[in-house]
């Protein structure tokens, strides 16, 4: 039994990788959870156009490398075209229900693909609903200040949607689209400005405001001290 765990996070793109490396990993390390991030791979290509047919190869490789590590995902639901459970996703579900359905479906798929690697014990799927950028809505004061917009514009979005992770999946109103509209030249620099805003907000505030994100991290915390 070890009093720490190691986690490989397969992430969608550069922003998610920087987020893990600069914010999440240092935060989790204090809890004896050591997380490393790697972008979804494809020969000659990194990130973007995330499909399960690409991700499953990486999942298999990392599950097989070491039997004592955990593997997770950090993938955006917005824009995903091919993923276990998408075709059976019912209409008008709550964000938490969408996340549960998709995470259950991919867990079952990975269990079936790699049974010898014990993914039921070692794989913890997480799909950000609806995008990584939703986490930046965890603090309206910081977000509005950094974008030089009125705080009421951010709070209006939160009042309309209920919470950051419920900001919707529309091509016009997804979190990234809203941030684009508030940015110079309507282009939000998520890997630079986005990460800087995330650093000001901090992981504890994100956990407080984003229950799905918080539940994801709680699963790792519960594993410290448990044999992998």
Automatic annotation (TrEMBL):
InterPro entries: DUF4276 (IPR025455)
Highest taxon of source: Bacteria
Pfam family name, one: DUF4276
Protein name as catalogued: ATPase
UniProt source species: Oleiphilus messinensis
Lineage: Bacteria, Pseudomonadati, Pseudomonadota, Gammaproteobacteria, Oceanospirillales
């Amino acid at each position: 039994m070890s009093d720490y765990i190691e986690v490989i996070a397969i992430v969608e793109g550069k922003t998610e990788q920087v987020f893990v490396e600069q914010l999440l990993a240092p935060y989790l390390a204090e809890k004896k959870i050591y997380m490393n991030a790697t972008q979804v791979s494809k020969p000659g290509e990194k990130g973007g156009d995330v499909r399960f047919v690409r991700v499953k190869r990486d999942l298999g490789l990392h599950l097989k490398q070491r039997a004592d590590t955990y593997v997770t995902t950090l993938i955006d639901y917005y824009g995903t075209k091919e993923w276990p459970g998408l075709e059976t996703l019912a209409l008008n579900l709550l964000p938490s229900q969408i996340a549960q359905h998709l995470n259950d479906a991919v867990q079952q798929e990975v269990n079936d693909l790699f049974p010898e690697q014990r993914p039921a014990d070692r794989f913890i799927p997480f799909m950000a609903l609806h995008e990584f950028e939703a986490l930046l809505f965890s603090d309206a004061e910081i977000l509005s200040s950094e974008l030089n917009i009125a705080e009421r514009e951010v709070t209006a979005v939160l009042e309309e949607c209920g919470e950051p992770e419920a900001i919707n999946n529309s091509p016009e109103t997804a979190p990234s689209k809203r941030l684009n509209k508030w940015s110079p030249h309507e282009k939000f620099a998520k890997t630079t400005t986005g990460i800087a805003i995330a650093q000001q907000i901090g992981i504890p505030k994100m956990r407080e405001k984003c229950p799905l994100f918080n539940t994801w991290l709680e699963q790792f915390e519960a594993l410290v001290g448990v044999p992998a």
